[in-house]
Design a protein that fits this description.
The structure is a single chain. The chain is of the alpha/beta class. The protein has 2 domains: 58 residues; 294 residues, Rossmann fold (3-Layer(aba) Sandwich). Helices cover 40% and strands 14% of the residues. Strands 1-2-3-5-4-6-7-8-9 form a 9-stranded mixed β-sheet, with helices on both faces. A hairpin with a 5-residue loop joins β1 and β2. α8 crosses α15. The chain is globular and about 80 Å long. The N and C termini lie far apart (48 Å).
Length: 399
């Protein structure tokens, strides 16, 4: 009745808050004597006004940032997904029905929303697939296929966060459309899975022994889903995420190099924040499993990472600098420092375009940028003033 992300829900709660405030002021004189019933009434009214104001403010902030998709997400009740999710056996290739029910953006992309159960992880949750304008045109043709000219980019939200943030508040899909129309990136399939799939737990895109298999959900299960639903081949993907999603993007790009060729971490970090309540043995296992530097030292290095971090974002920047220093001699790294701003969507928006451009253009891929000298100079850093969008030069490099 009142969807959490609906404008009408926001308006309703603000009207209710203001109406109760006005009514309280108007009828306050009726509760002025010191009888216990009047005291209780005054106290209850004041508490009710504050609760409604907090709820209205929370709904407004949530609509701005797309942190939670529904009331059940907010209160940690996601069991309804398992009841309606498509099992791997029931999932079919894209059909005319899917195309008719898809959302068409102003830029011409098609957005598909599916609730599925992961083939291997058993996770039941939502995944969005966005076909960029050129691919949307091909899908709407009689054959309903995407052809062979495309790239696949998996996008990760933060925590708390939902896939819609990439579509809405962050303007990720609009940016992708504009770059494709300008001929700066190839036709793109964007896969945006939910990563906050365990109610009340920040899983950090990890697999837990005897628990949620989120790493499997975002890697293996997304690939099998896309191969069935969109009919894609085995080409390697790219990953791109912000905040916690930045960690997820780096994680899959390093640990799953057979599936991902590269990743962009925007305001992310490079070591998972382990949830509370784990045993020492579990912590040791997860710390070892998700030690990206150790993996790169002892396994394949066929990947590359773009690191975008605000110098004012102490947590992200500290982790990024530590990772780059250790990974300098192991893989190519492109570092883009954000000169101002903290950890918020407004700071990140101008850097979505540089991320997509870097993923799509081999000629702007940087070699490691952290020198082994005591005072490293980041020669390939690309600072961008918030509110502006970097553009490629004639040579293809970002400026």
């Amino acid at each position: 009745m009142f969807p959490l992300l609906s404008l009408w829900t926001e308006i309703f709660f603000w009207i209710l808050t203001i109406a109760l405030l006005v009514a309280t002021v108007y009828f306050w004189h009726k509760f002025t004597n010191k009888h216990w019933k009047n005291i209780a009434a005054r106290f209850s009214l004041l508490i009710a006004i504050q609760c409604l104001a907090l709820a209205a403010t929370g709904i407004t902030v949530n609509r701005w940032g797309n942190f939670y998709e529904s009331w059940s997400d907010l209160f940690g009740a996601q069991g309804q997904y398992a009841k309606v999710a498509l099992s791997p056996a029931n999932l079919t290739q894209i059909s005319l029905k899917d195309l008719l029910s898809a959302t068409r953006t102003k830029g011409g992309s098609l957005i598909f929303r599916k609730v599925i159960t992961g083939e291997k992880s058993g996770v039941s949750n939502v995944v969005y697939v966005v076909a960029s304008p050129k691919l949307a045109t091909q899908l709407l043709a009689p054959a309903h296929t995407i052809g062979s000219n495309y790239q696949v980019v998996e996008l990760f939200p933060g925590t708390p966060g939902v896939p819609q943030t990439w579509i809405g508040t962050l303007d990720g899909i609009t940016t992708m459309e504009n770059l494709e129309i300008a001929g700066q990136i190839p036709p793109t399939l964007a896969v945006i899975p939910a990563i906050n799939v365990e109610p009340g737990t920040d899983t950090e895109c990890m697999n837990f022994v005897g628990g949620a298999q989120v790493e499997t959900w975002i890697t293996h299960d997304m690939k099998t889903f896309m191969q069935t639903f969109m009919g894609i081949d085995n080409r390697r993907w790219s990953s791109f995420g912000y905040s916690t999603g930045g960690w997820c993007a780096a994680e899959v790009a390093v640990l799953h190099q057979d599936q991902y060729a590269q990743g962009v971490s925007l305001a992310g970090y490079f070591q998972p924040s382990l949830p509370f309540g784990l045993s020492k043995r579990e912590k040791n296992y997860l710390s070892s499993r998700y030690d990206l530097i150790h993996y790169l030292k002892h396994h394949s290095r066929n990947t590359r990472i773009m690191v975008i971090s605000s110098v004012k974002d102490k947590f992200s920047n500290s982790s990024s600098q530590k990772f780059m220093k250790s990974a300098n001699d192991l893989i190519p790294i492109k570092y883009v420092p954000i000169p101002t701003g903290g950890h918020n969507i407004g700071v990140w928006k101008p850097y979505i375009a540089p991320g997509f451009l870097w993923l799509s253009n081999a000629n702007i891929i940087a070699t490691p940028v952290i020198s082994s000298a005591p005072a490293p100079a980041i020669a390939t850093a690309v600072p961008v003033t918030p509110g502006s969008t970097p553009t490629p030069s004639a040579s293809g490099s970002l400026k």
